[in-house]
């Protein structure tokens, strides 16, 4: 078929039938069985092997997409018109490898962070199911597949947010699930509207054919998508769940939540902009400046609120909000360079913010230092953690400039 990578000019891309996208999605589920091994060390090795194998599969897609091949598998014929389809394009390959790579680091970290017992098995069970669902988001070939995996990982995430079962965690979980269910309903509305006037939900470079549809209907549909995905992407004013969920969740999951799962919302906006509506149509509709304004507001509000937070993880949570604003702002520019910068920043932010939450977890879990004021003297007591934090902070603040 014809159509270049997201945000790039035309190119010939060939879809090749392959079971590997399905393998990548299903592999993490084998990690749940690792805890049938009663010995903690054996369980740790088995789970690390499963996540490592998942990461290897996601990396193996990179040479294929660089050669303009798209591994594709039609998993389930749901209706005469709709398939559960997995397709790995360039953007999906990058996002999927980033998700699996950070999940591997978080899994290794979690074995040292979480105490042995039923809670650890529960944590890893939901983590592996969430990883599988997030890879489904990365490799979704159409809107209905995207929606199913997106909703699955959104609901599964709740169990990880409330893992510690403290009053603060339960309150944060209640707020989180309310936000994401409302956001998911808006995405569903966008999907239904799209199908009603197009009759197709396949991600198509340049956008689906919408000739004859009233501009007002298209604007409302785009608004549903942006608001729905904007909840997960923490766009202001839809960001209210983030500052509570990140501090409540265990540090290894905070790293994943902030690093790649919040970015799933921005990834959804990316798909909608380039493969549902298309840049030219959105320019004609005049909605891109509004998306840019929301993104710019998110950058500023997130950064300003971050400066006023004495709690370490809440400060990092507000920083994530700001960084998602940068990512969405680049998407709203719909240029090849800006879009490439957005994807680069997605990877930057995933590993840099993941590192910061790992370091925060060491200080909180090992030294009881949750507030910034408690960090005095930590550079001497934990020099490796402090140096990693300093390096990550410098890169986190400069990554948007590097990406552009």
Brief account:
The protein has helices at 20-30, 40-66, 90-113, 118-139, 143-161, 167-198, 215-232, 242-248, 251-261, 263-277, 279-285, 288-307, 312-332, 336-367, 378-381, 383-403; strands at residues 14-17, 69-77, 83-87.
What does this structure look like?
The protein is mainly alpha-helical and 404 residues long. It has helices at residues 20-30, 40-66, 90-113, 118-139, 143-161, 167-198, 215-232, 242-248, 251-261, 263-277, 279-285, 288-307, 312-332, 336-367, 378-381, 383-403; strands at 14-17, 69-77, 83-87. It folds into two domains: 14-141; 167-404, no CATH class. It has a three-stranded mixed beta sheet with strand order 1-2-3. A hairpin with a 5-residue loop joins strand 2 and strand 3. Helix 4 runs antiparallel to helix 5 and helix 12 (288-307) runs antiparallel to helix 13. The two termini are 30 Å apart.
**Uncertain stretches:** none
Number of domains: 2
* Amount of helix: over 70%
> What value does the Rg take, in angstroms?
20 Å
The number of helices is 16
